[in-house]
Specification:
Elements lengths: L1 H23 L3 H13 L11 E16 L10 E14 L4 E14 L4 E4 L2 E11 L2 E16 L2 E17 L4 E14 L7 E15 L1
Antiparallel strand pairs: 1-2, 1-9, 2-3, 3-4, 3-5, 4-6, 5-6, 6-7, 7-8, 8-9
């Protein structure tokens, strides 16, 4: 009788040891594999009212078409330039947003001088979301102070554009922009000019 009781006690004791060890040392490998699987299947949620984006943009500007009586027969005087921008957007609908931006542009000229433009204003846009890919269509309008040598001009800017972004994770997305700058000038001397630039740029967006 005592041998039988001792035998069952030994079996129970042997069975308890691996159970306790399993509770004390969980299998972290399984948790890591599950988290990797969940990340592979991650798809961003549709935007909600109140979602915000802060963007940093850098790229180049390409002079395209210049028209008006102030061209004086020299439409190719402006060369390739660079541009940068800070932008803030707020979603009031899963697809629609508006916000503000402040940027800068510089471009060389045929006389080895520099043209500077500092556009700022408001934008409104519609964004199409396809999985991790996002395609905003945007229209910006505002002021564009300009400086060339000793001459300054406080002008207007209209800037439509389209972009494509890849949503890297819940916080960041990265993409490419193609924006069209329209810069009209109506000086007092009557020599009006409409300058058009194509912007090709890269943007990093922070979502919060």
């Amino acid at each position: 009788m005592r041998r039988t009781l001792s035998f069952w006690l030994i079996l129970i004791f042997i069975g308890i040891i691996p159970l306790a060890a399993q509770e004390e040392y969980p299998d972290y490998d399984d948790e890591e594999e599950n988290s990797e699987i969940e990340w592979d299947r991650y798809v961003p949620d549709l935007y909600r009212t109140g979602d915000k984006i802060f963007s940093i943009t850098a790229g180049m500007t390409i002079p395209t078409v210049f028209t008006g009586t102030g061209m004086d027969g020299n439409p190719s005087n402006i060369k390739l330039g660079g541009t940068g921008k800070l932008s803030y957007s707020w979603f009031f609908h899963p697809h629609w947003y508006f916000g503000g931006e402040l940027g800068g542009m510089f471009s060389g000229t045929g006389g080895k001088n520099m043209l500077y433009v500092v556009p700022f204003g408001f934008h409104i846009g519609y964004q199409l979301v396809l999985g991790r890919f996002e395609f905003p269509i945007q229209l910006m309008s505002g002021a564009a102070p300009q400086r060339y040598l000793e001459n300054g001009y406080f002008g207007w800017i209209i800037k439509p554009g389209i972009s494509g972004f890849y949503r890297f994770d819940a916080d960041w997305s990265f993409g490419l922009n193609a924006h069209w700058w329209m810069l009209p000038q109506w000086p007092k001397n009557g020599k009006n000019v409409l300058g058009n630039f194509l912007e090709i740029s890269l943007t990093a967006r922070y979502h919060f």
